[in-house]
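Review this:
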Amino acid sequence: METYRSFYAKILLFGEYSVICNSMGLTIPYTEYSGRFRQAETLTEEQRQSAECLRSFYQYLLQLSEKNELLTSLDLEKFKNALDNGLYFDSKIPQSYGLGSSGALSAAVFDNFGLNKQEESLPELKRIFAQMESWFHGVSSGLDPLNSYLNKPLLIYNKEKMKTVAVPKGLLTDELTTFLVDTGLNGKTDNLVQLFFDSCRHYKFYKEVKNTLIPLNNRCIQLFSEGDIPGFLKEIKRLSAFFWEHFKPMIPPEFYKWWEKGLTDDLFTLKLCGSGGGGFLLGFTPDFEAVQKEFKKIILHKIG
């Protein structure tokens, strides 16, 4: 029986939506959740559903290959044989939570069935993964599976330039705690991404994205990576305010009061984590214990 490696969840710290418009992005693997291929002669109901999803994914890749549209070479015969022998994806990554559950699965397929893995550059890998993952929710940047595949922090400069980096200093300092807020809700990535594309057709909104969101996002990445916490806390507050004004449909209404509180005091600041609409929100605070008391029964996960 073949042994398969684990693929971790990811957290897009900065760059949600703006990376679509060629901004910088910063993503890290999140080792609290992972998924891996397994095989069994007899499948449980949950495993059977996973196997059916994989088989549908295989059919999508096969159709692309038959039309000579697949951007990479996959051993689809090996993939089918594995499926016929009880292959399923055993994942503990919450689905529709912005942590890259479909990205981890895409990375696992490429890692196990890709034929030219060593020859691909990072931008080319990103394009390959974008095509593969688009089957799950319509549009993909390719960053989720790329991060899961590399299992290292990834700094994106633009669509054509990116590199793996060390853990950002903002995650290592005692002056700041980065945390996840569990909304208890499933997000709807495809609907929200389409809403963003529709909004970008309006010049005023697109101008705000290009002239305000992208510079703010890029400054936050720079300051967070360098560990300039006072500068970062100032800029992340501005980024949070931008999301509040222009991306409100992506913020779960149940969390409006906390988002607004984060804009008016210095205890914490919230931002989107992925496409929004549910899943996790991302937070930053100099006093995590006080934040835990503020959120009371809401589940928080400390990062780093």
Q: What stands out?
A: Residues 7-164 form a domain with the Ribosomal Protein S5; domain 2 fold (CATH 3.30.230.10). The chain has a mean pLDDT of 93.
